[in-house]
Amino acid sequence: MSQKSYDVLIIGSGVAGLSLALRLASTHKVAVMSKVSITEGSSRYAQGGVAAVIDKDDSIKLHVSDTFDAGASMCDKDVVKHVAKRSGGCIEWLQDLDVKFTTDFDRHGNERLHLTREGGHSQRRVAHVDDATGKEIIYKLVELSKKHENIDIYEHHIVVDLIKSRSEKQGSCIGAYILDKKSDTIRVFKAANTVLATGGASKVYLYTSNPDCSTGDGIAMAWRAGCRVANMEFNQFHPTCLYHPEAKSFLISEAVRGEGGKLVLPDGKPFLHKYDEREELAPRDIVARAIDNEMKTLGIECVYLDISHKGPEFVKEHFPTIHKKCLKFGYDMSAERIPVVPAAHYTCGGVVTDVNGATDVPGLYAIGEVAYTGMHGANRLASNSLMECLVFAETASKAIKHSKAELFKFEIPEWDESQVTDSDEAVVVSHNWDEIRRSMWDYVGIVRTDKRLARAASRIALLQKEIHEYYWNFKVSSDLVELRNLALVASLIVESAQSRRESRGLHFSLDYPAPMIRPLPTVLDPNK
Ligand code: FAD
Ligand code: SIN
């Protein structure tokens, strides 16, 4: 079978992957892979917006200190500064591409970006497109990528594994094995540079705000290729997802609280003042833990979010998408409170990179939610993620343009399926998928203990053994690729959580409630 060759192979078509593709396309031939349709991914669902230092009362210093505070003092300050400094430029880049951010007028009648507020931000700092920021950005990036002659888009193509050269001591990444889900064939794609932009791993939990594709594939592939991963114990739970059996944990943006929404108990009483003086605007880890505690203490199934006091006009103008979606489930948020619960939302840890997105493996980069850059520490500040995607796409594009990496000269061995048969027990995949996600939710959730983590570790180890045998004996399918990755990522999360003997940010342990004096990131190394 012919082997396709590109200057750059970008795995993922979210904000990270597509903005990198567009930044490279004037000089490089680029392939963009999406295991689903091109617009699908967390990016498309982003509501709140993109954090950026724009307002005249704001400063890089304030953004850095808010990020550091939300991150429970574990962010890499240089990296946060690197991102905050470039944030305004990235918003201008999007505006130049014709992304139409929501605007308002200052008191002199000049049009300006409307900046909203979210938890942990001391300033209005979040540029947005109503409450559907991700959709507007992604649709624009997709439109431009599709038009560009140097960008080839492959939808419904799932990358199975990265390929490394064996000719050097420290093998470089020379491409990937990719399964075309429609024709059910695995092909080799060669590339001088390969970029993981595969998003996060929140699908490892039973309840999540993320789309189905957030299965941590990039983290698992990078680990198998020999990259270090860090801070996997810090999975962020968003405090407010709609509580309804058919809503699939639909997100209710933190901007609702930023614009005055109140969290209340079933009897209508507020409760956040008991946990943090910033109340509704405390960072997410604190709000999610407070809700979890109230739910467990009172034995209630949800709490309520109320913004009805702002009136129908305000609510419909600021939150048209959320308002419409809630109506579909029988709730009019402009007139009544809505039921909410926390759900897994964001993977703060990931593949270790430098400020250019370069990983430990030459020729391999990781940008966006898949990466651990040091930006988010123990808890990500709201709306810092899209900004990180945009900034690292910019810096990685510069590094790739300067890179001397070349295409591998020789033919790469094709994927060998001669020893495997079609599976006759697809139930193994669906059963194990459910079991991993439930174990993670029950034992590795918002509040952890040594005992719960040990239970999760032994169950996941058993499942991994079963999946390993299955993987090598049967024909590879997309579901099996994802299940194998999900199990590996679950094991990395548990191992990281077990090694952190303190409570900090998103990792809260009843056995170690106090924070350590000098906390360090949890770095796991597959080569050790
Ligand atoms: P994604 O957008 O998740 O894209 C991942 C891509 O990788 C997809 O194209 C997928 O098909 C592809 N992929 C994955 N594995 C493979 C594989 N094996 N082979 C081929 N392709 C693969 N952040 C903010 O900053 N502001 C917000 O307002 C905000 N709101 C959010 C609301 C929701 C509901 C959610 C879920 C997240 C929100 N976030 C927000 C977080 C933010 O959206 C994500 O962190 C960010 O979009 C991640 O972008 P990404 O490009 O890294 O990955
Ligand atoms: C939200 O709108 O609440 C999500 C923002 C984010 O995850 O950064």
- Assign a percent range to the helix content: 25-40%
Task: Provide the CATH superfamily of the largest domain.
Answer: FAD/NAD(P)-binding domain
- Number of DSSP helices? 14
Q: Tell me, rounded to a whole number, the average pLDDT.
A: 96
Query: Unreliable stretches, pLDDT < 50, 5 or more residues?
Result: none
- Class from helix and strand fractions: alpha/beta
Extended strand count: 20
Instruction: Give the cofactors and ligands.
Output: flavin-adenine dinucleotide, succinic acid
Shape, please? globular
Q: Approximately what portion of the residues adopt beta-strand conformation?
A: 15-25%
Named at the architecture level, the CATH assignment of the largest domain is 3-Layer(bba) Sandwich
What's the structural domain tally?
3
What is the CATH topology descriptor of the largest domain? FAD/NAD(P)-binding domain
Structure description:
The protein is built from 14 helices and 20 strands. With 528 residues, it is an alpha/beta fold. It folds into 3 domains: 4-233 and 348-401, FAD/NAD(P)-binding domain (3-Layer(bba) Sandwich), CATH 3.50.50.60; 240-344, Flavocytochrome C3, Chain A, domain 1 (Alpha-Beta Complex), CATH 3.90.700.10; 427-475 and 477-517, Fumarate reductase/succinate dehydrogenase flavoprotein-like, C-terminal domain (Methane Monooxygenase Hydroxylase, Chain G, domain 1, Up-down Bundle), CATH 1.20.58.100. Strands 1, 2, 8, 9, 10, 11 and 18 form a 7-stranded mixed beta sheet that branches. Strands 19-17-12-20 form a 4-stranded mixed beta sheet, with helices on one face. Strands 13-16-15-14 form a 4-stranded antiparallel beta sheet, covered by helices on one side. A hairpin with an 8-residue loop joins strand 9 (157-164) and strand 10 (173-180). The structure holds flavin-adenine dinucleotide and succinic acid. The site of succinic acid (SIN) has 8 residues, from helix 7.
